[in-house]
Amino acid sequence: MDGLAYLDSLCLHRVKPGLSRILKILDAFGNPQHRVPSLIVGGTNGKGSVSATISSVLESQGYKTALYTSPHLLSVTERIKVNGREIPVDTLSNLLLEIKEVALKLHEEPSFFEVLTAVAFLYFAGEKADISVLEVGMGGRWDATNVVTPLVSVITNVSMDHMEFLGNTIEEIASEKAGIIKPSVPVVTGARDKALRKIELVARENLSPTVVLYRDFAYEGKNPKNFTYLGPLWHLKGLSLNLQGLFQLENASVAISALECLSRYHGIKIEENNLRTALSTTRWEGRMEVLRESPPLILDGAHNRAGAAALRDSLKHMFPGKRFVFLIGMLSDKDHSGYIEELVEITDTVVVTNIPSKRGTDAKTLASKFRYHTNRVEVVEDIEKALCRVANLEAPVCITGSLYLVAEAKKLLGKEVLL
Prior knowledge:
The chain is α/β, with parallel strands linked by helices. It has 2 domains: 3-279, UDP-N-acetylmuramoyl-L-alanine:D-glutamate ligase (3-Layer(aba) Sandwich), CATH 3.40.1190.10; 289-414, Mur ligase, C-terminal domain (Protein-Tyrosine Phosphatase, Chain A). The chain has helices spanning 3-9, 20-28, 47-60, 89-106, 112-126, 163-166, 170-177, 193-205, 247-266, 272-279, 305-318, 336-343, 363-370, 383-391, 403-414; strands spanning 38-42, 65-68, 80-82, 85-86, 131-135, 152-155, 187-189, 210-212, 218-220, 227-230, 235-239, 289-292, 297-299, 324-328, 347-352, 377-379, 397-400. The strands form 3 sheets. An 8-stranded mixed β-sheet has the order 4-3-2-5-1-6-7-8, sandwiched between helices. The protein has a 6-stranded mixed β-sheet with strand order 12-13-17-14-15-16. The protein has a 3-stranded antiparallel β-sheet with strand order 9-10-11, covered by helices on one side. The radius of gyration is 21 Å and the shape is globular.
């Protein structure tokens, strides 16, 4: 069995709370997670964009920068990068086999995510990275990434998602996400209200300084191509983002604040021209990704109510007055009614399809929920037929609801099978 076959044999979605398994495995390898200084990025939405932005700026500054993110769209190697280059498949396979051998000796059964996280730490240490950016998989307290003492902890925001694992209230979810806060380590957050109060409580208990959006830093402007960042040290005018969507203004500001903390608390040099260049070139696929300008064809991985609201606001800003055909497929554990409620205002038609996941909601079941909110709902169960149905319409189209659907769309549309 090669390493990739071993990875495939692990249950992708089995969630087993606790850090004991990964800590034992990492200890057997000499604790590679402590060999590279890191930032950890948690939160409900925007983690990937924030992580990618921080990584891009650090790389532009000349640091050998490691980035660990999840999930992937097309290849598992996307999750583990150094200076923007994915881990080679052979290296990944070899490291997986090493971890498999150690896990067997320890009589441990690590999860898919734990094994990949261990691979990332081993690879980053082996590559002698200067710094790493670690995106939390889910929650924070028991997440496999939460085995480091970071230079900065980031919690982008908190909203309702993964309730079966994290809790049924904002406070409970915020408490799980605040698990990445470590003693005396600065915390940057865009969280608000009840979630912010919980995060600040945990930070006070840990004597960790908090840096809060709209209190300690902010942005001015509603144009991602021209906005201002205002922070304790930095006042940056005329910033321009490559990433699309109004919500990226907040994500970018959180990322800049984390970089400002690196400078402020750790003396890590960030030059303004490098920061500006990185912001204007950072890419993050599957998030407000414009595949075609006219008529618009957009991919976005929004999969919860807060994400849908952010998507709606961005589409309204980018395409004022337009109504969209939405192709939607969703996992079964999501707030389907809340999701479509946020999009109805700019919806022409909803086409519902199945997604390639055992946890996917049946298209007919999803459509029946959506029909409580709009009567313009079609069901096309086969994903390729659904993509054919929407890809060549003259109307604006947005493919959303799940990264599984976005990934499938990228596969098929990227090969120009349908476009």
